[in-house]
Amino acid sequence: MKFPPISPDDAVCTQTLGKLCSELGPQSVDEFIAQFKTLLPLRITRLNQAHSLHDETAGQDAALSLKSAATMAGAHGLAGLAFLLHDAFRDDQRETQGELIGRIERAGITILAVLGEPGFAERALKAYLGSASA
Fold first, then answer.
1. Is the C-alpha dihedral spanning 5, 60, 36, 41 positive or negative?
2. In this structure, are residues 12 and 114 in contact, taking their beta carbons and an 8 Å threshold?
3. What is the pLDDT of residue 8?
4. What is the pLDDT of residues 59-77, one digit of tens each?
5. Comparing C-alpha atoms, which of 63, 77, 80 is closest to residue 11?
6. How far is 54 from 69, CA to CA, in rounded Å?
7. Average pLDDT over residues 116-122
8. Are 114 and 8 in contact, with CB atoms under 8 Å apart?
9. d(CA 75, CA 12)
10. Alpha carbon of 12 to those of 22, 46, 72, 98: distances in Å?
11. Any idea what DSSP says for residue 4?
């Protein structure tokens, strides 16, 4: 199974984060982004450990955790990969697990770079409010 790379333009949905900003405020979203950035490497480590230990239960749990966080962050491509990985753990598809984890690692680098741009939450809010009023 081959997956195309996630481009920086598609890494994070500004509409999703903009809506979250409108509900919680940019400061809360900045805090969420900081937490997401801190936890992403730990989540990937959990996925790698579950894969290497053949621990389907831990793998499914880690994949669902990543899927939930990625969805909330607007990283829909990453959430989709995590969903597929959950199924690969459930179905004991070892080769697919490894490929998806590698893909998640590469996507994570792109997503962290996009989320690391200063003022990202504020720009997302402006874009969201601009589209909501159009």
1. negative
2. yes
3. 59
4. 999 999 999 999 999 999 9
5. 77
6. 24
7. 84
8. yes
9. 4
10. 17, 22, 10, 23
11. P
Question: Structure pTM?
Answer: 0.87
Which tokens is 124 given? 């997302």
Tokens of 65: 């955790």
- Residue-level length of the chain: 134
d(C-alpha 33, C-alpha 29), whole Å: 6
DSSP, collapsed to helix, strand or coil, labels residue 128 as helix
User: Percentage of the chain with pLDDT > 70?
Assistant: 91
Considering only CA atoms, give the Rg of the chain: 15
- What the block records as the tokens of 37 is 């950035």
Distances (CA, A) of 13 to 5, 40, 79, 124: 16, 17, 12, 8
d(CA 100, CA 65): 15
